[in-house]
Every structure is written in structure tokens, then in C-alpha cells.
Amino acid sequence: MLGALRGERVVRTLAAFAVLVAATVLVCVALLSLSDAPLPVAHTVIALGGAAAMLGFFLGPVLTGTADQLDPRRFRVFGMNERAMPWILGLGALVSVPSFALIAVAVCLVITLVALGTPALLAVVTAVVGVLSLVIAARIGMATSALLLPERRSRELTALFALAVIVVAFPVAVFLASLEWDGQVPDAVAAVSAVLQATPLAATPGFALAVTAGDTAGAWLSGIVALFTAAALWLWWTWLVRRLLTHVDRPAISRERSGLGWFGLLPSNAFGAIAARSLVYWFRDRRYIVNFVIVPIAGVLTVFPLLVAGVPLYIAALVPVPVMALFFGWLPHNDVAYDSTALWVHVASGVRGVADRLGRLLPITLVAVPVLAIAIPLTLALVESWYLLLPMIGLTASLFLSGLGVSSILSVTSPYAVSRPGDSPFQQPQRSASRSGYAPAVAFLAALVLSAPTIWLFVMTVIEDEGYNAATFWVGFGTAVVVLAAGAVIGGRVFDRGGERLMEFVETA
């Protein structure tokens, strides 16, 4: 832990530490002040905060690229006992800055629970189990990230503190919003809180809260889920430690398969060759894989700020699918830059620009279409409004395909520097050739503007009646097709005329 003070970024590390201390103090003050709050408000804030903590500790290391100081692979050469290592590393994980912040918050939680009427022993047990579960979840996130995204070379020291910042930010936001509830929890927030207390995200604090509220059935359900969650986390952690201690990663080239793979499945023309090469990149390059993982998470996380702000659950539940469609369409806006010097294959072979533009869109389409096809019916089943099926399809198609059309143009007109092949997907490139930093915002806003008529019709369908169903679908579908076709043609023309400029860009950036 003290090793973080070495190197050239001591000031930045200390600043991050100061921010973490301030955020932890805010959370502790918020928790302690809940002792005098109405019971429903206190239960809701604690449940949502517990869910945010579990989510942050598990996903934080993956999203921030945090390196595990106690990576099991570092102990391979010492002949350590495989059965004892999970226990040793688990206890050692408590000696970290995020763990200290978590322990401080847990102490304040115990004081608050006791003030709310929870038996002292039960409050202490809940805090201990919660702390251990979260610490193990963080180690699982780091170990899983090491397996899925190996050889990450560049990490910011401040990423060690990003995990705790993620954990404390959402509970503070919920607490501040609760000040406007006037003792009455919004129905949507209460419903989400009740559901979370029966899931692995908040089952541990949910058990203590259900006992305090006298909800016997809820206490049994949350208690069983909490026990199974703790057991599952420990088994997962034990397996990961043994896996990392006993297996040596092999280069991918040592497992070459016979056949042409994607090149044999797709058409034998320029479109098929470019699409096959793009598929290989999207499914093997960790820079693309990170994008795939983040989009669904970003879509789901948009629900929580809306609920905290008082938006009804019915409306908030309709937001994630369009957001995911928008981000999926936005992803290829800088696809040329990710090719790096491999772009010469496209330019030297003299392929038509349209074939290049359409071939690059196949990988994201193969991923986005199944994800959206599953997300749409699940959303409509949650809100019990199947009459929105056609409007939702129209809106999703408009946002997704319009984004692809705009991205097809911007990826050749305004590429900007990204991390090179083999570098960390979380590394910020330090190159002077990036002159188009506006491209991400333009791609995002252009897709929204082009889909504005469809968005308006969808809103009218939700708040008025079903008379806008057909119009929403056809306007959205028509917009999608026209923008995608125009984007492919215009982007193709620019690619045909600017191949040398793009080659110069990838060589210098």
C-alpha cells in the first residue's frame, strides 16, 4: 500500500487519497444522520447504498484496470499451499485504502442500525459479512480482469482509489435526494429497493433491515440469498486462486486452428474479407472487448439516477434499451484509428470505400442485434406494456443505425489517436496527431438529432395513446435505413479520395 507513494505521481496519489477521505467522511455523516430519519427512508438509502457498494467493488477493478497488489500469479515460484492461499490473500486484501474506507463506513452502519432498532449482535454480523463479501468481490473482479484482459501494461496509480470513489458517490447522491422525500419514499424507489434486498447486491443489509421492520418472510429470503452469495463468492475466489496458481497463460498463436475461420464463412469479396478481418479484431483485441462490456452496463446504470431524481419506474425502465442502441451505434466512430498501420491492407488492395464502410459494421451488428433483441422484450415484460413493441423497435433501430451511418463518415473524416494494438484499453495516448477530439461528441449528438422525430413520436406514444405506434415504427425504421445508406456512401467516397491522408494519420498517431 505504501508503494503507491513511489514514483513521479506522488502529488496526484495524495490528492486522490484526500478526495477519498472526504468522500468517506460524507458517507459516514450521511449514515449517522439516518438514525433520526423515518424508517422507510433509512431502509431505502441503506439498501441502495449496499447495492452500489457490491456493484462498485466487483466492477470497479474491471472498468478502471486496477492491478491487484496480491495477484496470486506472483506467488507461483514460492511453492505456496494452494488450499491456504485463498485465506491468506483474502485476509491480506483487508490491508488496502478502499478496504479501510469500507470498514469505516461499516462501523457507522452498525451504529445506525442499532439506533434504528436492529439487535447489536445482528448489526455487527451484518457489517462483518458485508465487508468480507465486498473485499472478496473486489479480488474476484481483479482476478477475472487478469484472466480476460491480460498483459495490461499502463495503469494510473489513482485507479487504486477509483473503486472507493465509485462506492461512495451513489450513496451520497441517494442520501441527498432523500432530503427532498419529506419522509415519503417514492413508489418507484421503494419498489427497486425491495427488489434489490432479495438479490445478491443488497441481500446482506436487506436481512438486517427486514428483521428491524418485522418482515419475517423478507428476512428469510434475504438471509438465504446472503448466505448463498457469500458462499458463491468464496468458492469462485478459491477456484480463481487455484486457476491462477496452477495454469500458465499461453500465447494465442500456439493454438492455431485449421481452416479459414471467419474468412471461410463470409463471401469471397472485398466486403467479406474486410468483415472477417474486423470480426477477428473485435472478438480478440481487448480494446474492442472492453467496449462490448461497458455498453450494457452503461445502459442499465442510467436507471438509478432517474429513480433517485423521482422519475417513475415505468418511464425509467424504458431508457436503458435506447441508451444501449445509441452507444452501440456510436462505437465504430473511430474504427480506422484502431486499425493502426494495418490500414495499409485496405488502401493497397484498392477496395471500394463502400465495401470498407459496410464490412467494418458487421461485428458491432452481430453483437448489438442479439443484445437489443433480448433487452426489448425483457423491458416490455417489466413494464407490462407490450403495445410499445413496434415503437421500441423503431426507436432502437433509428438510434442504432443512425449512429452507424454517422460513425461511417466520422471514422474517415475525423479519426483521433487511440491506444496502440497491445496497449492497455485504459491507457490515454500521448500523441500530437489527434486533431479531431470533437468527433465523439459529434457522432453522439448527430445520432440524437437525426432520431429526434422518432424520439418525439415515441414519447407521444407513451404519454398519449397507441395512435402513434405505426408512425413511430415506420419513421424510425425509415430514418435508420436512409441514414445508414447515406453514411456508407458518403464515408466510402471520403475513403476513396483520402486513403493517403488516412495512411499518414495511422503512421503518425
Can you characterise this structure?
- The chain has about 500 residues and is an all-alpha fold.
- It has helices spanning about 10-35, 40-65, 85-90, 95-115, 120-150, 160-180, 185-195, 205-215, 215-245, 260-265, 270-285, 285-300, 305-310, 315, 320-330, 335-340, 345-350, 355-385, 390-415, 440-450, 450-465, 470-495, 500-509.
- Helix 4 runs antiparallel to helix 5 (about 120-150), helix 11 packs across helix 12 (about 285-300) and helix 21 (about 450-465) runs antiparallel to helix 22 (about 470-495).
Radius of gyration: 25 Å
Task: Detail the poorly predicted runs.
Answer: 150-164, 251-258
How many helices? The count is: 23
Question: What does the average pLDDT come to?
Answer: 77
Largest sheet: none
> Which descriptor suits the 3D outline?
globular
Determine the fraction of residues in helical runs and give it as a percent range.
over 70%
- SSE order in H/E notation? HHHHHHHHHHHHHHHHHHHHHHH
In angstroms, what separates the terminal alpha carbons? 36 Å
Total beta strands: 0
Offer a concise description of the structure.
The chain has 509 residues and is mainly alpha-helical. The chain has 23 helices and no strands.
